[in-house]
Amino acid sequence: MHENSYENSHENSREYDYVVIGGGTAGSVIASRLTEDPDVTVAVIEGGPSDVGRDDVLTLRRWMGLLGGELDYDYPTTEQPRGNSHIRHSRARVLGGCSSHNTLIAFKPLPSDWDEWEAAGAEGWGAVPMEAYYARLRNNIVPVDEKDRNAIARDFVDAAQAALGVPRVEGFNKKPFTDGTGFFDLAYHPENNKRSSASVAYLHPFLDRPNLHLLLETWAYRLELAGTRATGVHVRTKDGEEILVRARTEVLLCAGAVDSPRLLMHSGIGPKEDLEKLGIPVAHDLPGVGENLLDHPESVIVWETDGPIPENSAMDSDAGLFVRRDPEHAGPDLMFHFYQIPFTDNPERLGYERPEHGVSMTPNIPKPKSRGRVYLTSADPSVKPALDFRYFTDEDDYDGRTLVDGIKIAREIAKTEPLARWLKREVCPGPEITDDEELSAYARQVAHTVYHPAGTCRMGATSDEHAVVDPKLRIRGLDGIRIADASVFPTMPAVNPMIGVLMVGEKCADLLRGDA
């Protein structure tokens, strides 16, 4: 295994056919697919260490221990007048990216999600052509294993079905759905609770390929441009050495919805006025960079249980529920994760106390209407960018109302057997809070993120001036560079987006092979 193959460390530049910036969810896929051709050399620049042999990363049930730790870029949120200003956005600093860090809930985007992309100008990305990419994924995607199906999670599924009359779903990826409850599909190996992340599935089996070069703990801080062509990227190794990594064919930017626009802006590619204010020389005025920041905000309602909950679980949030309140809506318009833990990190700031034993339901907005932005506050690349999600700022308060509906629905499920017998009392917001305005204020103040930032380099038609990339993922007005990660999402899929990002990686590899 040649993870840090700094062959000629005395030289300060190297050259490869392709340079992939970010060894995360999409970058791992692209590097793996490109190096299937032994004549193609690929460098992967990853800011974090390898995940090989790291049980703290590879064991799925340990995911919560990674939040805010040494493998987390841990981005704060700007002041949110209508939401929670204390949200920390985890972005993973490790091979495999967020697929090495998250719960690996695995949903194929719904046909209505892809068709919405196509309607937004992403020609060729509709449901029919995209279906083929799901079948190619190398990850082990399976429903939560029987042995991991916790008794209280089973009873949640039964109660949700009884209370709401939604279908029970066994295998959410088998066919499109508008509502339903059940255990999730996960990208994991149930026999040992190990991840089937992008790095495990796409890179670990191929680390001995001589044409695959992983530059780990190596940070990309500025793209190299020759006129309108991207020719490489400036990086800093963990020893502080600065190297120019050149791409003979193309640069692939796969740093995610925060760091892809951040790297572009530090390279002078972005909204001209913003860059000029910071004294960054403008190389290419591209107003859409950093705009259209999407997320799945969710709130939380917590119950104390009568005693301890059985220990078995895949990752403590193994089951969930989808509801469609509006029959005109293309897919589900409300989602819940069911946590087998009392998830009180945010309510505690309002004075709530964490019960010793408890469970939570998290009403989530599948198709939020609010849009935010990522922007720089300094010309210094080491200063974290600002993330302003503008949570709950949509005009008709659709997002806020969705969470209020969610709390009401969660309460219906909680009083329904067989779940009701487990629950001792509602801890937060507390049964005395029933008024819509009070519920909304609570729901927004304790809202958290499901860590799904997307959309900040969105894809659109070649004529769309605010699109950052075209339907072939090429940056508008530049040559030799594409973006492939969640930043290209024009709109948010109704479901957890990781599988969508893997499919973006597979499609990008196809586009590259087609053009080569």
Automatic annotation (TrEMBL):
Keyword Protein biosynthesis included in the entry's annotation: no
InterPro entries: FAD/NAD-bd_sf, GMC_OxRdtase, GMC_OxRdtase_N, GMC_OxRtase_C
CC cofactor: FAD
Superkingdom of this protein's organism: Bacteria
Alphabetized PROSITE patterns for the sequence: GMC_OXRED_2
Keyword Iron applies: no
Pfam families noted in UniProt: GMC_oxred_C, GMC_oxred_N
Record key words, sorted: FAD, Flavoprotein
GO molecular function: flavin adenine dinucleotide binding; oxidoreductase activity, acting on CH-OH group of donors
Annotated ranges, domain Glucose-methanol-choline oxidoreductase N-terminal: 256-270
Residue numbers binding FAD: V94
Similarity-based family: Belongs to the GMC oxidoreductase family.
Protein name: Oxidoreductase
Biological source species: Streptomyces avermitilis
